[in-house]
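Objective 1b: paired records.
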Amino acid sequence: MSKIRATIKGIDVFLPEYRLTNHELSTMVDTSDEWIMQRIGIRERRILKGDGLATSDMMSEAAKKLLAKTNTSPDEIDLVVAATNTPDMFFPATACIVCDKVGIKNAWGFDLLAACSSFIYALETVGKFVESGQYKKVLLLAGDKMSSIVDYTNRNTCPLFGDAATALLIEPTTEDRGIVDKIFHVDGSGRGKLYMKAGGSQYPASHETVDNRWHYIYQDGQTVFKVAVSRMADSALELMERHKITPDDLAYLVPHQANMRIIDAVGRRMGLAPGKVMVNIEKYGNTTSATIPLCLYEWDDKLKKGDKLILAAFGGGFTWGALYLKY
């Protein structure tokens, strides 16, 4: 019997209409378009506007578009996994909320949180469910409303992040494509370098946590930059060596879109020409869980069946890794 693999059957996205430009940011904090472009490579980012709108609203819209595009009924979905760092609330899971908004009645689901590595961790997770042979149609959601946890008085972090959501339909295949292999790691000693201090059980919301601005992202930028480059590149290179993939064999590296300098450095470490690295950070910024699938969506018409892709990410925790995917 042929081995079952999990493959991406379809992908769609939701992008908020509002564009927060560098020029507008320069009226909010001491920054400029030149400063942001030189250090980060972001020109604008999408922001979800509207009272009460949350991550589930973006995911639900992406899911509805995907189901229509793939001619899939909500009743056919077996499992829903939402990769997100900005759930609507602690519970119920955002996956449950999306099921209600989309009309999915016959599935079970849960959220997965691994900072900026959430998507590749979730893709591997749902892949194992599909490979088991029990699941035929899995809805993988990946997205974040990062604007909800960004401090727009902090010029070091507020230019980085944007809002977006993606939806992928994952199905089984016996063809030589889909998820092939992965290398994932966690180093918990990095937990104090990139985090949101309050809002959890350690520091529940209080006047003190709000006054101290602990409900926003904190990042030790220099440390994160150095570790992200080495860890992403090492994982990707190890995966290429394991499967005897040369830079010429690789169709694309699909890196997490955190910082243009990180993306460039990882590509150079891997010996890849710039044209073999997917980059769209200038238009969207760091959408956290959504960055990699947003790239896959935008490059979909350029990809051919069987193209070899390496997906690589690094996030708070520290979490990082690389995943080998045949498109």
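Objective 1b, second protein:
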Amino acid sequence: MAATGSISNGFDSWQSAYETAMLVLALLGERDSQLKAHCERVANHAANFAEAFGFFGEDGMRSLYLAGLLHDTGFIATAEGLFAKAPPLTDEDLLEIKKHPVTGIALLSNYRGFETILPMVRHHHEAFDGSGWPDGQRGEEIPLGARILHLCDHFDRVTAGRREKERLSVDQALADIQGQAGERFDPALVANFVEFIQSGSGAADDFILKKQTALIRQVFTAILQKFSSGKIVPPAMPQIVFELRNAIKRPDASVKDLTEVIERDPVISLRLISVAKSPVYKGHGDVKSVQAAIPRLGFKETLSVVMAIANKSLYEVKAPHFRLLLDKLWVHSLVSAYASKLIAQSLALNDPETIFLMGLTHDVGKVVLLRAFAEIPQEEKLKPEALLPTIQEAHQSVGNMLLKRWGFGDDFTRVVVLHEGASFTDQTKKEILVVHLANQLTRKMGFSFFEWDGKDPAELPSAQLLAMSSAALQGVEEKVKEIVKDVAHLF
């Protein structure tokens, strides 16, 4: 079996071709959403099948995957309503359908990077005995990638076709394919394909997501090893935060003392004033100086706001793709902080401002890991859905390490380690329950990487242990949304 060619010029060329393919596929989806879904399934089946039996090298599998995505591109040019017609189709309809491989390569030839997939697209309806179309190729004259696509295309059409009553079960489909081995399909491939499908070995898995997950785990292991050996130095908390914390701890601390510390940083000073002037902290008179802002906020809230402003710098990276992730994580952390504070206030807990800071820093391990990923040259863009589960697994231990380095006590590190909520009891510290509940509320409010499950948040174990009612949590949610709308852009 001859392997397909590979996309030239390495990963840059692959990435460009993949992005173009997704645009073309989107156009096909506008024409017919079911056809787009069919192409995605065929691409995943074909690439996973080829990988399982080692038909191609890495580049060849990527080419096959792209060909799977684009094998039905020619249908973009077919007449409206063709796919809605019930069988039997007219001779004109069948002729229209048989044109799509040739039309497809005519369209794809206009794009750079698709040279190696054109033979697979053109010949994916050729039959092993020469009875196929458009060129009547037979046997191994047909490119291997096209023979694989022909199998996967047929399997998907008969098992996931448009009309449910016409669909075959998996066993029926495999029997149908076996019955046409040597005629329509390559008999050697048929035997392997039947074994592949019957093994349940992830035939329909997202091929790109799977490959990226494997790459991410390799990179992630290397990052953790570098952290352990000290080769990666975690980000430092800005000095102004330490100085302000020390100033506030002094029994004789004054507004003047805090003002002198804050005014050493003009950016933080201006942002602190802006926050103090916002509707959230409304009071009598205008705030035009740090010295006026501090009494309006109070000492502890001043520290919270300064730390939030300073903390924002930790979420800044140059790589655009990671910048989007970190921007979203920043908003999530800020929302978690305000939700934690409001829950603490509603429960009359001591020191809501400290709980605000716990909410602000609960996911700081994710920040460190995303920054580390952003600094490693990436051969291809990583999908967030591949990256985030890996980071989710380890962010607590990394966050714990960082907060200890910053000099935060056990009360903070406990929150970082335990806020995901594996097993809460009535002995669990209330600040841990509060941050867990706030973190879950961000999902309901749409400020999380994770979807809300639609349940009443009052049913959460943390809410029940804190005796927070549905009405109380709804009030927290509404207030947080109002606060974030007013102040998020000021940090």
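The chain has two domains: 10-205, 214-235+316-490. The chain has 23 helices and no strands.
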